[in-house]
Amino acid sequence: MKIAKTKIVLTTNRAIIVFNILITMAIFSNICFAENVGKKQSAIKKGYETINCTIDEIKTIHTAFGILLDTVSIGFGAFQKCLSNAPLIEFSGSREQVSLTASEALKLNVLTKIHCYDAPKNVLAQARVSISGESMKVDRGFLRSYTNRAKAIAAVIAHEIMHNRGYRHKQNDFGSKYYLNTVPQQVLACVLTGNPNRSMGPKALTARLINNPTWVQANNNCLNACQSARYSPVISGSYQNKYDFYVCAHNLGNKGFRPGFNHKNEKRCSVGSGGDTHRSKNKYCLCNIPNINYRWVDAEQYDDCKATCIEDSLVPMATESYAGGGFFFICSVNAWKRGFRPGYNLQGTRKCVAGSGGDSVWRDLNKRCLCAE
Predict the structure, then answer these.
(1) Could you tell me if 201 and 215 are in contact, meaning their C-beta atoms sit under 8 angstroms apart?
(2) What is the pLDDT of residues 184-231, one digit of tens each?
(3) Domains of the chain
């Protein structure tokens, strides 16, 4: 085969061949993406450069890059909406910053180097993390297999570009329950299908990557859900000594799982937000598991739960990041002096927000925070 090296500059005004092919995430069910931290490289000019690629591979790559340009030009609004609705983990800053970074990166405003190579089994592409330019290796077999599915190749290139821009799936690598919610995979999904991957459930925040708390999806109350998994539910207090409050979480408005409360007479999770209490049967319950000791720690009025736990050399417990980029820390308040019920404390704020049995919401500086030893 003839090997070629070419450098091409793309503009958004070029004619693009549009592939009207339905591609689902199923094509990625048995593959993974490898990433390596490497030395920085410098960008030279806009466009892309192919290295050690055949003429046919170059044609396929060229079409894929055209699709990426269309995604952030003609389809810019849809791409932004997709990312803004995407459940995200393993990122810092705000969701808006993630969306802006992705959109700018896919405009090819720096030179992107594509090295064609024979990848190890089940690896489609590799990219270095946090480099000054954009560079990746793409498997020849993948390029040949998907010659007529350039959108799939475009999506994989987008995934790797996000690694170049510093986003990882180090803590939630391929095979992890939460892999599809990492930034590179959500960008891939938005390019490929126009829709984000659904949330895979609440992700507990812990400074230790082992012994993570267990969240159990539940259609019944949390007592039954945890007992079915051979655990016991995490309890914050009791309602006038009548029944216990269990810690649950609900993905309210698809903006992150907020902690709330459940009890033995209720199948729903009650979460406070705005001025209302929202209830949903679509919930997860926090269960006690071996090797983790939870402690409810009284918080100073002017501390958030993160500071409260760290001051006691404990690990703060949270569900996941919310739309603004912070975390929902698990707290509890003695609402109406009827027992400590679970709620959430936003990172950097002081109050604990909890739902009620009615429609109101309780906010209080006097709170307890859930920490782990």
Answers:
(1) yes
(2) 999 999 999 999 998 777 665 543 323 356 788 888 999 999 999 888
(3) 3-192 (3.40.390), 214-372 (no CATH)
